[in-house]
Amino acid sequence: MIDRQAKTDHALVLLPQFADMDSSRAEARLEEACGLAEALDLVTAEARIEPVRKLDAGAFFGKGKLDSLKERVDELEAGVVIIDAALSPVQQRNLEKRLNAKVVDRTGLILEIFGRRAQTREGRLQVELARLSYERSRLVRTWTHLERQRGGRGFLAGPGESQIETDRRLLSNKMAKLRRELDEVVRTRTLHRKRRQAAPWPTVALVGYTNAGKSTLFNRLSEAQVLAKDMPFATLDPTVRAIRTGTGRKLLISDTVGFITDLPTELIAAFRATLEEVREADVLIHVRDMADPDHEGRKADVLSVLEALGAGAEAGQTLIEAWNKADRLDDEAREDLIWRARVIRPDAPRAIPVSAITGEGVEALLSLVDEALGSDDFILRIKAGPDDGAAIAWLHENGEILDERTDPETGQIHAVARLGQADAGRFKVRFPGLGQSAKVMADG
Q: Any coiled-coil ranges, and where (predicted)?
């Protein structure tokens, strides 16, 4: 990973551009790589796109390119070279020798950020396990410090055993210990999730590209104080809150880790337990940064990760798009966004332009969620006496009152309420004999 030494705060950021990457996509990726570097408190001394015609198996770049990069590293006095691509251990090691600087690839960069951001015990264990899995193939270069963990009697290393074999065994033991600890934490999380599932409330998960504004929208919806910063991966640990929609429907909403292009497989595997929140949600709100010039490319990346997780529309979940950061668009772009959101296509998810900062469109977004969850609703027709005020109050708190009248002569209350399936069942158990229910048809 990144050593904190002199000059390591200055970085040369390189994006290898292959033939299948267009210029606009390359510019967006380069900007993102600079943002990732900034998230590690690195100063980008220079950022550049490097066209690559043929990949060199030994050092990624060809000899001529390496010579020019070495000169530029020396001129900038850069201690770190960030290459926004996946490097093999051999390529990374040879690049460090040729450039005389620390070389970090995309996976290593994201792992380093995750290591800084994780706050909960589960998050830290997941990141550490992913990092060790990544570093396992890089033992020659990075894990000699594990020798200090050995006991003084030498019982771990047999005669003739090399240092790398010792380190590999130590690393495997450490990973096994982390897996056991993580299994215990995951069991606890699973119990908590089962308790929430036993509660009669639907679940909604916010998903989207990193830095799309999910946490800001989560705070707006739930009045929570989750960390929301303009930086990649500000949120790693999922947070769940209970909220109510405009109709009184209670639901659980969760904020989740942001996705990113080429999310390292080590992280997808490590965070699979955390991302169960996404797989098990009744509704997914895909938060998109519509001020991002490459928002269509980001959307494709998110859908790709959802598919890898076995989640999304293809998995039978309702998907709603929150077109965020509308406040950053000019008047013409905002009008176009609003017009496009009104066009309902059967092959596309419903969308609402929103601003998590100003609150614009948030109520309309909740209405869409309400509509999506309403397919399982029941209409209750209530006949209650003057002494049944508790039942009417319960309906006001847990459902949507469509009609309510009181007979002036008898004092009998006639009410029509819309309730979710679970709430309708709870009402019948709590107040038997007061209401008759009918299933809401799909057309409402």
A: 161-188
